[in-house]
Amino acid sequence: FFQECPSGVVNEETFKEIYSQFFPQGDSTTYAHFLFNAFDTDHNGSVSFEDFVMGLSILLRGTVQEKLNWAFNLYDINKDGYITKEEMLDIMKAIYDMMGKCTYPVLKEDAPRQHVETFFQKMDKNKDGVVTIDEFIESCQK
Q1: pTM for the whole thing?
Q2: If you placed Cys at 100, which of 12, 25, 47, 127 could pair as Cys (CB 3.0 to 4.6 Å)?
Q3: How many CB atoms lie within 10 A of CB 88?
Q4: Total domains present in the chain
């Protein structure tokens, strides 16, 4: 972190450049955008070293509840408290783009949408078209 960002703060473009080094076979730009927003907890357009370490701490050493809250926040792109099919599809497409076209077996074009449909069948308990934090946590814990 400090090697790339000696000031201890990284903006989104630099974050994307750093992240792309981990996924050279694909386009990680969109997923890095979503990830950046999850780490940028105060939504000021930058991720401090403290923000980054706190996020990593949750992901590596947090309770199951803390990890699931963090993951929900990542998927809830507009931060309205719900995950919609559109948000989940955006995330899935970003993941498939990041993994690149060289995945094995070769993925069908509609694979992200199928993934989202499966996700919603399992998680949208009341079938209202959105997944709440409670639905998300309950489903993940099962």
Answers
A1: 0.83
A2: 25
A3: 23
A4: 1
pLDDT mean by block of 10 residues, the chain; 142 residues: 69 92 91 94 88 92 95 95 96 88 60 89 95 96 87
Distance, CA of 140 to CA of 134 (rounded, Å): 10
CATH of the domain at 81: 1.10.238.10
**Residue range of the domain that includes 56:** 7-139
User: Would you say 71 and 123 are in contact if contact means Cβ atoms under 8 Å apart?
Assistant: no
Q: What does the H/E/C string look like for the chain?
A: CCCCCCCCEEEHHHHHHHHHCCCCCCCCHHHHHHHHHHHCCCCCCEEEHHHHHHHHHHHHHCCHHHHHHHHHHHHCCCCCCEEEHHHHHHHHHHHHHHHCCCCCCCCCCCHHHHHHHHHHHHHCCCCCCEEEHHHHHHHHHC
Q: How far is CA 43 from the centre of its chain?
A: 16
